[in-house]
Amino acid sequence: MDFKFISDITDEGKYALLMEASIDGKKYAIKIFKEEYRYCPYVLEMECLALSCPYIIKGRSLVYVDDKIGIVLDLAEGDGIWLTMNNIPLSSRAKLFREAIIAVDYLHKCHILHLDLKPGNFLIYRQKDNEEEENEMTMIDGGQASTKKTVRVAANETAVESLSMKVSDFSLSVRGEIKNGCLYKKYDLERTPDEYLCPEFNHTKYTDKHDIWSLAISLLYMSIDNDKYMDKFGNYLTEADAATNLDYLINECNDTIFIDLINHMLEKDPAKRYSMSDIFQHEFMKGAERIDTKYSNRLVETKNDLFRSWCEKNDVDNAIIELANVILSKNDELLEGLFSIDYEKVLKKMIKWSIALSLADEMINNYKDASAHFSVLFSPKHSDVFFDITYKAKLKFINRKYISVFEKGSDGLMFSFTLTNSLSLSGDLTCFH
Prior knowledge:
This protein is an alpha+beta fold. The chain contains 15 helices and 15 strands.
């Protein structure tokens, strides 16, 4: 089945742009990384897009667009900014805020720090039973898409209740480790917007308390009536200005239970700031249930002494070795199928090892493509040629792997999960320009 190209989406995020497409009359967004991020390690994002949480956006398939991989995503009704510009009661938004909290908690249980939580990365979806309005496409910062319009939902309680909030955009997320009871990742680059950085941030580490701080500011921003703010100040409050208007946002909100939770999440002392366990014990979360993950954080031990010996000799980090070992053992048939011509046995093994190691590095660090680094280790005298071979093979592997993950519910590289309500896109997927 072929996607039909509809239009470009003129706005775009830092890392990606979107195209609008349709198949069988239903519209989708295609997320494509920009040319300067052609080698962006987007495998962690794909893993997150297949997690078994109803409040995390799901990938639906992959396509090639201009020789780059595009991720097929559902179109959203709007984002957290859109939410502030529509006549939706705060009592109804509370349901959406609980869903956002459940999603971030689920990510943390998967050892994923989002690190780019802001209103634009919370997408609003609505079931399409009685869709009557034409939609105008707009871009959401970070690479998701929504339909932009002012909807008359306040007069229709059913329409409001059909809304759901989902976390999106994992371009800057990382896989952390448990350290002193917290989810931890050593600082490597700027991942969180300045306006959503917690006060203790000092360029040494990221923790789950960083996500909780930016989550609180996002929820507080999404509680406002931006039309009312416009009438008072002559302009809309942007998501970038939320942190400098905390007092206004807190004073304007008439939900005292919600504000009490927000104040605990915005405690300046990280030791006193609410943890996720504290949040779920708060009155605001009454009736909300945490979602258990369907995988184990402990990687399955695999026996490949030769591979481990080579890695240790070349000072590869142990966490990367373990994950790469699992990738090799669980995807041997798929890796073997990458070779359309005969390769010398040792060279084939080197290519497989290089692909697995670079993917493992990218999923753990989500910083830059690691293929060049491992190409130098495997073939120092001909690293450019080796890189070209392995990178093309890796792209083929990613495409085949995640089509299977998104369309058939297969296990990912890092997580095992069950995909529900998956979109079946059988047949060849044709790129469009």
